[in-house]
User: What shape does this take?
Amino acid sequence: MGASDEEKDWVIASRTGDPAAIEALIAFYQRMLYSLTIRMTGSVADAEDLTQETFIHAFQQIGQFRGESSFGSWLYRIAVNKCLNWKKRERRRGEIHAEWSKNLDSGDAEKSVENEQIQEALLKLHPKQRAAIVLTIFQQLSHAEAARILKCSETTVSWRVFSAKSKLRRWLEAGGVKS
Amino acid sequence: MNDSELLRRLNSSRVPAPRPEFLENLPSRVRTGLRSQRSASSAGGEGAWNWLQPVTFTVAAAACVALALVLGYGVPKKSEDAFALLKSPSLLREVMGMFPNRVRAIEEDASGIQLVLSDREDVPASTPIWVSICDGKKCSAFVTFSGQELQIAKEKVEVLVDAQDRVILMGNRFVWSSGEPNRPVGHLRIQARPLAYAL
Assistant: This one.
């Protein structure tokens, strides 16, 4: 995740509270963060809240961003921490189905079921395994980049990904997560 | 299922796309959140005593409404029935009338009354809930609604009401229920109940 010169200028300007710079960074990263948070929580409402909270936290603490990693990596780290601290509300099994079928028009009933099964399986994973899978598979980061975001070793990321894949494979082969 | 098949299935799965109105409103909501954080910290939050960091917080409206209401209803007498003004049904009805479906909470502490508002009309109507929290001699009180979140001792706490009208405060590190009112939560003393009037 290399930073362009334009992005570096936005980051510098955002330290002074420049609204245009803040807005530019939000526009640039909002979909990236949303895609992370929706995979981590399975909830549209929670994904929106966590995306918003991540940006608020990031700009509040912008003075602490030293530029040693990319701004995107820094946002990922904040977002992942918020997701790991996110408390899943008591939800009925049908809620993913209701929310996803309302907001995701896959046009194919079988594909809809598969989408929901995969998300339910992800939610069944330990949060840190889920984070490793989401960062490396869905966000397409290397294990090294994921390790920097998760503040652990690359070996730990690799192990979490391996364990998570084993579980996902088992659950999906069995036809989804049983309640 | 081999690894490549698993990866194929995972990568071909889809999630709901972000709502256009969410993306459109996100910059303004972030700016509002930043302003409310700055207001809260400049008001002298003391470490763990950091009440209510809402999604949106209309400071100006809250100050005006608080002043108007206090002048209209008189200064609350904390030495007698503390927070009597906050418990007043007419206060809540008036505030709800001014901001329909937007009132997340009304807070009263030593510095006065403040409103916590949502920037959308997305707060469902429900029975108001009274919550008071004391840390030593310092007390604050809220009127809020089931499903709303408060900040208690640096922790986000969800306020819920069960079918038996018991109030439950659910945070990451503690759970408190009005069914067990004397259960200690660190050094905090908590009281909560649904308010016995309709709006």
Notes: Strands of chain B lie at 103-109, 112-117, 128-135, 138-145, 149-152, 155-161, 167-171, 175-177, 188-194.
